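Subject: Predicted fold for Trigger factor, 492 residues

User T.R. writes:
Posting the sequence so we have a shared reference for the thread.
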Amino acid sequence: MQVIETLAQGLKRELKVVIPAKDMEARMNERLAEVKDRVKINGFRPGKVPVAHLKKVYGKSIMADLVNEIVRDKPTEILSGRGEKSATQPEIAMTEDEAEADKILNAQADLEFTVAYEIIPAIELKDVSGIKVTREVVEIAEDEVNEQILKIAESARSYESKKGKAANGDRVTIDYLGKVDGVAFDGGKDEDAELVLGSNRFIPGFEEQLVGLKAGDEKVITVTFPAEYPAANLAGKEATFDITVKDVAGAQDIEINDELATKLGLESADKLKEIVRGQIESQYGNLTRQKVKRQILDQLDELYQFETPERLVEAEFENIWRQINTDLQQAGKTFADEETTEEEARAEYRKLAERRVRLGLVLSEIGEKAGVQVSDDELQRSLFEQLRQFPGQEKQILDYFKNTPGAAASLRAPLFEEKVVDHLLGEISVTDKTVSKEELTADDEETEGKAAKKAPAKKKAAAKAEATEGEEAAAPKKKAPAKKKAADDSAE
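User M.O. replies:
I've generated the structure tokens; pasting them so everyone works from the same file.
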């Protein structure tokens, strides 16, 4: 086998691989010898089929298998021998001329193919002890814990029927019938529906018109369905609702005590406070880590500047660009609305794609040198978390990870990255700073990373997901239950 380098430009490489016809024929003969005793051909006893006849019957198919195996396996072997790593799957090209291909399969011509790829650049790791980050920490006040408990306890709040007019915060029990142009519509009717006024569960304008009504009152209210309402036959339409108020109940005060904890499935108020405090700490902890991580990535970005593989950058850019356009479309906006142009946005997000790829390579090298590993148990837990987020779609998700090449890597990458960040936190200077929750949650553009500072549409994936964070830009939107009542549906 002969390997000739035909291109070495920057990170781009192209190799010409030549395997002489006589070597291919020798390999074919070895395969024929292996199958000689197993093959059955009419007129010949097992093991007595002449090699020439075997070659005539099976030669071309065996040679085709050999070619496929060589083209599949040799590039990896060749790159390993050269001490190179391909940034993406190498591109293999060989003759498409049928006559030439036939000669190769008949061992009458050398097998030639080219391997085109981009190498992952050699990265010389630098001292990170000079990296300094500030870790913002929020001290959680007792009042904040109690406030969160009261929000959670709304589901356990008691109501007591009262005389007089309904006010915001009261629970009304009503029958209603919705009509458009005087005709009742599907899903627009309910009986004994309970609604807390001010909860904004129903479409805009509905609840406000119930304020001031008493038990036994009847009223026809008029509302307009939102233009983006899921049911196309109701979107943007004016509707009337015949309302009958059957009960008005006032909300009872909530006290944080053992009784409340029991209603919420816990043994004591202390345990309830402990759990809620832990939840708040976790939320703030995630924000703290994101900010620390951005600081680390920004400083690594200054430390490391090198050429990045174009194909990786292009793939990353396409992912970002697809998300940006989806966000704009969903918001009903254009680049002009974001005070930029498509050309300027492309340039900015391409820079961000380059930064992501470069930092991804740096973190990968740091992790590899530090011996960072992601265990099978950690991958399994990550997969279970995916399944938990999408109930009812478990089979589809499992099939996807089982049958999609590289899917498991999408689980491993963010886990690996977070473990590398953990490793770096032990190597760099970290200073804790106590801040208020307002300071921690402030939308500080500076923390979004230098590459994203000037990016349009600041809500976008590129601005939020620094470098290679592996997180989605926006939380998935809730899907309303299919059989939810029409008046209730829009606010779910």
